[in-house]
Design a protein that fits this description.
This protein is of the alpha/beta class. It has two domains: 128 residues, Rossmann fold; 190 residues, Rossmann fold (3-Layer(aba) Sandwich). The strands form two sheets. A four-stranded parallel β-sheet has the order 2-1-3-4, sandwiched between helices. A four-stranded parallel β-sheet has the order 6-5-7-8. Helix 1 links the parallel strand 1 and strand 2. The longest helix is centred in the middle third of the chain and has 27 residues. It is globular and about 55 Å long. The relative contact order is 0.13.
């Protein structure tokens, strides 16, 4: 599969893209393109969105057969609008994403996913096929299971290079193919390097942290990443529970909405659930501390941080909150704070 479909959000089901005969291409905010997004969008806007738009304006992208946008927040909605100006020849589909989690929300999202699938098959002049979709979902679930095994190993012992290797696998699934990522994951399950002592076990979460080199930096700063929850890590490789519903689109909607949620999504029956899930993930991964990374101007995450901090304090889990643009450059500026945090945690 060489024809690529671009996307920007973890709520985009890669199996639907591949079932229609395309390759996925998640557009990461990583580029040397000059800052131009301010010509189309406000300067005080999500740096993720601005950098992705910079790439579009600079034509720093492969040839794309179309773009999938998710109306996950106002900034992403504005990006979809600006894309028409930046790349007017790109076919675009915009999916609405419910902000709450309930039966009606899942019904709505399942219809949106079905609409997406039909559009993708039409773009490739392929007959719509539920069988192909189910086959790709089954393959995706194999990848998710392999990623889970790698994370389980990470939570028990520290292996140098293991976290960055996992990120390379996830990036391959996002920008190339599930097949290649699955092969990489199956070869990665058994660690090649010996366990190393002296690292502080930490659970990390936030918006996005996609560069494998960041995880190598963590190791230099005495951090053992026991698990992570970003829209570019385990949250992206979401297993689809096909046993819950015969309708594959309802199964997709349920699985994507009921994972550890993005901060813009809230279970209305349990409004503080995001904080409790972060506490649970930290405990399950044997972390001694938690580091959060949020993007500047990300109001949904910044609004959730107080409840997350309170939930971690209640469990006596040390917490470090960092804000930036989640790039290598901004990470380097956080080195002193991270090293001080790991010294406090001990090993």
């Amino acid at each position: 599969m060489s024809k690529k479909i671009g996307f920007t959000c973890a709520y985009t089901p890669v199996p639907l893209i591949e079932a229609a005969g395309f390759s996925p291409f998640r557009i990461f905010p990583e580029s040397k393109a000059p800052d131009q997004a301010g010509h189309l969008l406000h300067d005080n806007l999500c740096p993720h969105v601005k950098k992705v738009l910079d790439r579009a304006l600079e034509d720093d992208l492969p040839e794309l057969e179309g773009m999938v946008f998710i109306n996950s927040c106002d900034s992403m909605r504005r990006l979809a609008d600006a894309w028409h100006e930046a790349r007017p020849d790109d076919p675009i589909v915009l999916l609405d994403l419910p902000s709450g989690i309930n039966s009606l929300s899942l019904d709505f999202l399942s219809k949106e996913y079905k609409r997406l699938a039909k559009i993708l098959f039409k773009w490739n002049s392929e007959p719509f096929s539920i069988k192909k979709i189910k086959n790709e979902v089954a393959k995706w679930n194999l990848l998710a299971a392999s990623v889970k095994k790698i994370e389980d190993t990470m939570s028990k012992d520290f292996f140098p290079g293991y976290a960055s290797g996992l990120q390379q696998i996830i990036n391959t699934a996002a920008t190339d193919s599930t097949d290649k990522a699955l092969l990489m994951a199956q070869n990665k399950i058994d660690p090649e390097k010996p366990v190393k002592d002296g690292q502080s076990p930490v659970f990390v979460f936030g918006n996005l942290l996609f560069d494998p080199k960041v995880y190598d930096l963590f190791e230099e700063w005495n951090v053992h990443v026991t698990a992570s929850d970003f829209c570019t890590t385990s949250r992206f490789v979401t297993p689809v529970d096909t046993a819950t519903d015969d309708n594959i689109f309802r199964a997709l909607a349920s699985s994507y909405m009921e994972q550890t949620p993005c901060a813009r999504t809230m279970d209305t029956a349990k409004p503080g659930d995001i904080a409790q899930k972060i506490v649970q993930r930290a405990k399950e991964s044997n972390a001694r501390g938690v580091i959060g990374f949020t993007l500047k101007f990300c109001d949904p995450y910044l609004a959730r941080i107080p409840m997350i901090r309170q939930a971690l304090q209640k469990e006596s889990i040390p917490f470090l909150m960092l804000e930036g643009d989640c790039t290598m450059g901004s990470m380097g500026q956080q080195q002193t704070r991270i090293e001080a945090f790991t010294e406090m945690l001990g090993v």
